[in-house]
Amino acid sequence: MTDIQGKTGRKKVLLGITGGVAAYKAAELVRRLGDRGIEVHVVMTEAACGFITPATLQALSGHPVYTDMWDGRIANGMPHIELSRDKDAIIIAPATADFIAKCVHGLADDLLSTLCLARDCPLIVAPAMNRQMWEHPATQRNVAQLRRDGVTLLGPDSGDQACGETGMGRMLEADELAEAVSAFLEPKILAGKRLLMTAGPTFEPIDAVRGITNRSSGKMGYALARAAIAAGAEVTLVSGPVSLAAPAGVRIERVQTAAEMFEAVKKHAAKADIFIGVAAVADYRVSKPRQHKIKKTDESALTLSFVPNPDILGWVASRPKPPFCVGFAAESRNLDAYADEKRRRKNVKLMIANLAQDAIGADDNEVSLLDDAGTHRLPRAPKDIVARQIITHIAGLISRKTRTPR
Length: 406
Ligand code: C5P
Prior knowledge:
Shape: elongated
Mean pLDDT: 92
Low-confidence stretches: 1-8
Distance between the termini: 41 Å
Number of strands: 23
Bound molecules: cytidine-5'-monophosphate
Number of helices: 14
């Protein structure tokens, strides 16, 4: 586990649980936030304790759970102030219609509502309620006011509800919430930057049903897209065929072939401040793919002829005013030497090198960052963590480049 490091060190949040059936998802949320290096402290309303016990949340968070204004464990007797003071955000999940109404009107009749009123940190709310409660004009008015007050709303989603009805009002799943909270807490080091990137494999057709592709899963590229969004960038992702969900907030263009990927990149390149080529683009394509399925014959050999594909990254980097270009080099040996040769040949500012046999399809990655200053190795870590470190490195290089010399 790697911690999210902010200015104040490890990020800490206060998770407020209110009385809805979705309270069971809060237990999972504590774990998923912990996976992302975020320390969680829990406060529950009395009604929440009817759905899930404080003991469960204490065991999962590793910290005492508070439910009462008059809790004697806070030395100065003011838990309603003290519990939020060292936190980076308060997250209410699930947030009932009643609790949202209380926040909107500034009511403070229990520990959690008082903490929300007395806070000096951002408030994030994940609503969860029956669809008719959600659609009620009173709730909609309250939600609109909450947004005007600067509160961040995550969800709700639509789907099956515990009451047996179907519609809007389901709380987001724990993993989605944890991802959004983690992004919210990330410093906005790429704010205002437009990032264009490619990810995944390409698929080069041979005939109507067959083609040539590679084992790239798209996981590294999608992790980078999420990290860039979290860092405040505007992201356009040109993706080859992968089985991953589009990262929230990313503009995605799905393509199959290298030629289609090239066309999509050409469309957006002029507006990009940064270009990252993560895709494993096929070097060659079949020169004349057959329109119909090739039939088996008695011939002992079948010959296909190939033509080279355009080098997308090379094209972007050689534009008159290129964006800040980053490439990936997956090699099976001589990693640093091959990657550095590629960096110079393609004229990119940063080349990220990894061992193909280690990285392709895996959830972890171990990379080296090669730039004008030399080689910087990152320890093996989950791709989401590696992605954040790469984004931090890119932001550092860009700010150094744009800083005016004295
Ligand atoms: O395939 P190669 O090792 O040359 O890939 C290095 C970098 O160039 C990668 O970032 C890849 O996305 C990019 N590339 C590209 N178009 C190609 C081949 C590679 O953009 N046709």
